[in-house]
Structure prediction request, 555 residues.
Amino acid sequence: MADAIAVGRIWHYGEEVYTPSGRVVPADGRETERQRFTAAVAAVRQELERLAATEAIFAAHLELTEDPMLAESVEAKIADGATAADALHAASEELSELFAQIDDEYLRSRADDVRDICRRIRRALEGGQPAMVVVPAGCVVAAEELAPSDTAAIDFSQACGLVTRRGSATSHVAILARNRGIPAVVGLGDTYDALAEGETVVLDGTAGELIVAPTPELESEYRRRAGERQRADAECRSRAAEPAVTLDGRRIVVAANVGDAEETRRAMACGADGIGLFRSELLYMQQQQTFPDEAMQAAAYAAAAKACGDRPLVIRTLDIGGDKALPYYEFPHEENPFLGWRAIRVSLELREVFRTQLRAILRASAAGNVRVMFPMIVSLEELHEARALLESCKKELAAEGVACDEKLPVGVMIETPAAVMMAEELAAEVDFFSVGTNDLTQYMLAVDRGNNHIAAMYDSLHPAVVRALRQIVEAAHRHGCEAGICGEFAAAPEHAELLVGLGFDELSVAAPVVASLKERIRHLDSGRARLFARDVCASATKTEVHALVERRRSE
Ligand code: PEP
Ligand code: MG
Prediction:
């Protein structure tokens, strides 16, 4: 994988240094400062109420904002002449220091929560919307956890790596890092505590390793390896635009997963044969006030379609819920959000929101080779409902004289055991499948994809998952339906032979992986891959499957 090694300095996101102004506010200005503080707290409470609907940590933060200690301390300092921001900073330091000294691990950890809340309040004091946070050049971003909405507010263009305390390889922050070619190690757990601001670290995103404060020898060894990888990458990028054809002449489409038009452009430059997954939800998550309207969406999709030229652009309809929230829409509180109101379930209930998106996709279909795909389908009824809405939007547009692709290809994501069991019937009705192994694995094995504690059980090489993949491809091909895969599983080079052997027509991966994956495919023989996949599917234990894959990798 491109640039998988990084050497850089730790830069904590959300812990930007505040330098107190030291200004003394005249007596007649102090009430205004107090009111500014109260208004900022109210704004933050509103924001937290929304976030608490989907993530429990924010409910705890909300509770902390009710603690009178913080407000009393800030107001006392304002009464003594401090500005609201200075008073908040001082109170935050005092209070988090107090929590940090408590002899109880849980209460001690609340020191971080206090700092986090105070940071939010300070941003609100500084004028509402936080500006884009730019990561300094050569730094490794360190964060407790990054929600997808946080990542939209960070400019990673100069960052060289990312580490988090919480999260797993298929959590959305890890996916985002991969899409942008940023080496990342997520879910560090307690190791995260050792990351002091400015500390030098070495990070190997492929191996999932982090070395804190390396010796000078180790640091230069890793810098040498990073340079080597970059050179190897540059070499395989020179052939990236060429098709991936196996030794015996089978063409495999290698597409990219992206979140917006800019990433689409980058993916094309990386040699992608198309976009196998356009995560449209990012557009929704970047809005602050309301759902994006039809014109805005149509422009964004058309820009991506144009960037693709005649290569296909698969737009996945809104896949929200689970760990993905919207700043302007209150989701119901759910005990199990990943088993709750997410993806197509939301779209079929928020009909107008869905229709707006379908109309926008249809409009964009006049600008290029667009396809539409529905996420998290569990039944034929859902597909029928979604399709009926698509057809009625087509009719509306035709009546309005708006051009669109009458034969817009329709696909579904296969991400649930139900969809696997119904693959035969679904395949008879759609043009393509795209297997979302990130979700399929979690639902098949009943292992939460974001839960560190059971991360070792999250295994897409579990025989049940591998056999499901075979079943999906076979059902698809019996009905002339294309079979692709866009889950993270496809991005690991050691899985390429298995996936080609299972018969997948398309692998869609993070853009920086496209070139090396194509190169890997060019060295495969599809007949040999088929035999290998047959052996893997015949294995009944995880150990056997892993051993087979490992043996093949080292051959
Ligand atoms: C998947 O589930 O594999 C997938 C590609 O969708 P997401 O990761 O966005 O849930
Ligand atoms: Mg999914």
Q: What stands out?
A: The domain at 242-554 is CATH 3.20.20.60 (TIM Barrel). The first helix runs from residue 30 to 52. The CA atoms of residues 378 and 418 lie 5 Å apart.
